[in-house]
Amino acid sequence: MCSEVIIMEELKTTIYKKAQDLGAAIVKTADVESWEKEPIQDKSFWPRNIWPWSKRVIVLAIPLFLPMVNSTPSMLYQELYNTSNRIMDDMAYNLANYITMLGYRAMFFPRDCYADIKALLKNPAAAFSHVVAAYYAGVGTFGDSHNLLTKEFGPRVRLVSVITDAPIEADGKLSEELCIHCGKCLRSCPSGCFKENGGGLYDYDKRACTEYHVKLSDENHFPCGICANVCPVGDDMRAYRREAAITEAGIRHVQSYGS
Ligand code: SF4
Ligand code: SF4
Q1: Where are the domains of the chain?
Q2: Cα–Cα distance between 9 and 25 in angstroms, integer?
């Protein structure tokens, strides 16, 4: 094995250990060429079109705990969401800082990066998609709900990305599709956002989803996440298979307080 390969392997081990120490449950890397070789978004979203020095995108994921997700919409879930946001941005900032200290270029793209949910009514997309990055990096695959599904937590994950020129080996996409096309997300969406179209991914009415989130935000129990809540994919579901993560009475109880 040549010394350059050993250095790249050591660098990857070092950076992944740091990410795990910072709290990342899943760490995977995509080559920025993936955006160009298998385009999902138009060129204006490709990392090299925005940051010409970039070589890799390191995606970090943390779980959303099932008993808390099950209570959605609730203040309990909103607090989980807020906590995950804070942790992800801290984690990604610190990892970008660590990589910079190693002598490489790095920055992070914050997990949401919009000022207010109402901004998405005007332009319902982020300047960079962590879901697309996570797909290229092999964190998971697209569900029919357009959520990223992971083996570990199904769609009950939050994602953030570090963009860098550190020459670590990319992990590659997952080879198996995780969505089992059960239709639970389609039937459960309170806003009827999904429509079957004879293919895999459902047609998705982003505006209807955003309008529902504006309503939930005004009622102080944001976000929705029901499509993630009902999805049967994920080892986290298996952990609770023999008993409910929260009782029906418990959900009503939790929803009755705090908002
Ligand atoms: S987040 Fe809620 S409103 Fe939006 S698609 Fe999922 S279930 Fe529907
Ligand atoms: S709920 Fe079913 S159809 Fe929807 S994303 Fe999950 S596995 Fe796929």
Answers
A1: 3-255
A2: 20
